[in-house]
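Residues determine shape. Next comes a sample protein:
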Amino acid sequence: MDHDEQTDDWPAQVAVRREKRQRLLDEGREAYPVTVARTHTLAQVRSTWEHLEQGEETQDVVGVAGRVMFVRNTGKLCFATLQEGIGTRLQVMLSLAEVGEEQLEDWKRTVDLGDHVLVEGRVISSRRGELSVMATRWEMASKALRPLPVLHKDLSEESRVRQRYADLIVRQEARDMVRTRSEITRAVRRTLEDGGFLEIETPVLQRIHGGAAARPFRTHFNAYDQEMTLRIALELNLKKAVVGGVDRVFEMGRIFRNEGADSTHSPEFTMLEVYEAYGDQHTMADLMRTMFLAAADAVGSRQVETPAGVVDLDGEWRWLPVYEGVSTAVGEEVTPLTPVERLRELAEAHDVELDPAWGAEKVVLELLSELVEPTLLQPTFLCDYPPSAQPLARPHRSEPGLIEAWDLIIAGVERGTAFSELVDPVVQREVLTRQSELAAGGDPDAMQLDEDFLRALEYGAPPMGGLGLGIDRLIMLFTGVGIRETILFPHLRAEAR
């Protein structure tokens, strides 16, 4: 916990809690028992006895357990609120008449906020109509040695992310995010499975990194004395599976890119990749839209509020060619034949910074990124890219000098990508050879030449479509938060001591 999240007496509170733990042990009692006599979850009590009228009592005895989130000790009657799981809460009451003086005083001097306790007693509705358990006995289930974050004071974002366990305890929004993420990934999987796609798992450790333009993390495999990388994409192994006859295949897994971190990028994130024999960029677009709608239906509405405006997922998902979008943004026609000198003049006129080493295609992509993508609120497939944008995509069937690939932009952010996949092993070798030459020349993002992948293509890969979808960015769209909030335990800088 950051210092600014601690009260001035925080070390003293820890010391007092440790003393209570030791006293329990010295008295021959359990501070951390293996199990307790829980008969019902808090949720089960709520659902089973929700019908009780104000002040109504039963003789039904239950054993409930949870974390103490609120406590009020007043003379002969103590109140506490227990919490479990996704945030379900239930009141417990300890009265002198029911538990006796010894147990009541023990509760007052032993129990702190954050402790897990078992309370056994009758289910009642209090005089104020609050469903409760009137205790006949209690015991410690787990003694908390650190105070909870102050409930009335928001944790800083840094503290929330760094100590997510504390965030989950005190903030319902954090617990909701875990459930939302699970519901979205389940909806995506269900869509694919209903479409006949098989989920497989491919290696995280790879000798040759490929499938994307990204900088890898490097490691060493001691048993084989081999230099290895963590995968930067799922693509190449999934395509090998299609070659082998797994015609519809997907994987949802962690990938790793040793690059910058910001509100939309994390070095470790969850990627979905899907490949379909005899598919193309159009079948992949249909599938992408279906997955987004399934996710929307799982967690809320197809009209999504974003800082840029309301996204209507039920509306048109239009196709916008890259050069058409750039032409509109700069106010004159731009084509694959536009000289790089003119492109640089247009960039300067629109305050777009460029690297002097970039060629015409890279300059067009930068103009696209800076001037076009941020303006696209409604779902838009940016399509007809220059070839350097995606080295693994097929040349366009009707537009020479372009490739069949698209990026899906929603609310100004890239959400996914897809191609009609390049399956000609001769052309693919030429493309990967150029990439490997860039890598040898010092480009850390360039792909290496993967002979095993090329060998697989030489056995004959069917025409296929493939897509990639960042699951974290899908969740960001529906929750309106940054990537560090959607990932339960994201990577951070080392904690200052």
Q: What stands out?
A: The two ends are 11 Å apart (CA to CA). The chain has two domains: 33-142, 171-317+378-486. The chain has a mean pLDDT of 92.
